[in-house]
Amino acid sequence: MRIEHSVIVPYTVEQTFEVVNDVARYHEFLPGCECSTVFNRTCTTYDARLNLVALGIQKELITRNTPKSNRSLAVELVQGPFIELQGTWRFQDYGEGCRVTLDLDCDFATELIQVFSSTLLKRGIARTVDAFIKEVRRRREQD
To answer: Which residue range(s) make up the domain with 27?
Structure first.
């Protein structure tokens, strides 16, 4: 299943990328994220562990993240409740702000779960992007 969500925000690419790449603080502002840690850092990647709760179900998600100079953040499943999960956050200059796009490809264990989860996941992605934008705003207001 492929999902894409894009918004234009009144913040710079750098400001927005900074928040999305700050995985260790996701638990502070991302709904449903109870714990977030970063480990296995190299010069090009890092792994992230998120403890997520949705509909009363708790799951651990581990991803390998590859940031690219404030322009993108690729995310690949290492371990978690998906058969496959790959995604990319992209940040593009747009006037005085930027366009933020999240592309996700994911597969679930069965077609029934995939069909049931499709709508929930699309709504969740929109809420997730909104949470990141609110955090960018909060951090800019503190500066």
So the answer is: 2-142
